[in-house]
Amino acid sequence: MELKINSLFASLILLLGSLLFSWNATAQETNEIYRIYDESYSQQGTVLSKTASISVPEKLLNGNNPTLYVKNNSVLNQTGSYNPMVLKLEDVNSYGFLNHNNVLFKDVQVITINLKNQSDMLQVFDASEIKGFNKLKYIYVKCYFECSEKQIRNFVTNIDSEIVIFYKIVNPL
Predict the structure, then answer these.
(1) Which string of DSSP letters, residue by residue, matches 11-58?
(2) pLDDT at 1
(3) 3-class state of residue 98 by DSSP
């Protein structure tokens, strides 16, 4: 009798674990990911890879906003006289800098990640580890090589469903 209960309990735990894993995988798929094309792809300016009811926040992604530049796990430069609205990661070795609350993060609405080569994608950006980004709306990945939506989805993990992900292929070789 005790063996049956233990077996049933183990089966129940296994089933719950499996359900949680599949729920997490499904949740990961809920984030919208949009490729941004250059003007050379369209006469009307920047376009997205799929039809959507979302407009590209051009001024936030490419405008002259207060910006915090991070490289080698430290602040490389800060522009603007207000708290940064944009944080630009100049390398993939600086994710750890985002794992601690910092007053500079409180107004950041977009994190831009520059990926210089394919091997940069091996260092996954786990959004559940970043702290203090209360106004974060977008993650913008700039690939300096050919990349796909699937690769971006595997690269950016554990992201809140309200955050929109954009990516752009910049001057691929």
Answers:
(1) HHHHHHHHHHHHHHHHHHTTS-EEEEEPGGG-TTS-EESS--S----H
(2) 58
(3) helix
Total number of domains constituting the chain: 2
Nearest-CA neighbor of 91 among 59, 129, 119, 58?
119
18 with 100, same domain?
Answer: no
Run of H or E residues at 165: strand 164-169
Give the structural domain span for 14: 1-30
Backbone angles phi, psi at 127, to 5 degrees: -70, -20
Check residue 72 and give left, alpha or beta (phi > 0: left; psi -120 to 50: alpha).
left
User: Residues 51-86: pLDDT tens digits?
Assistant: 455 677 777 787 789 999 999 999 999 998 889 999
Contact by Cβ (8 Å): 124, 151:
no
Instruction: Report the pLDDT value the prediction gives residue 68, as an integer from 0 to 100.
Output: 95
Q: Distances from the Cα of 20 to the Cαs of 17, 49, 100, 138, 163, in angstroms?
A: 5, 32, 28, 26, 22
Distance, in Å, from the CA atom of 158 to the CA atom of 27, rounded to the nearest integer, reads 9
Q: Residue 117 carries which DSSP code?
A: S
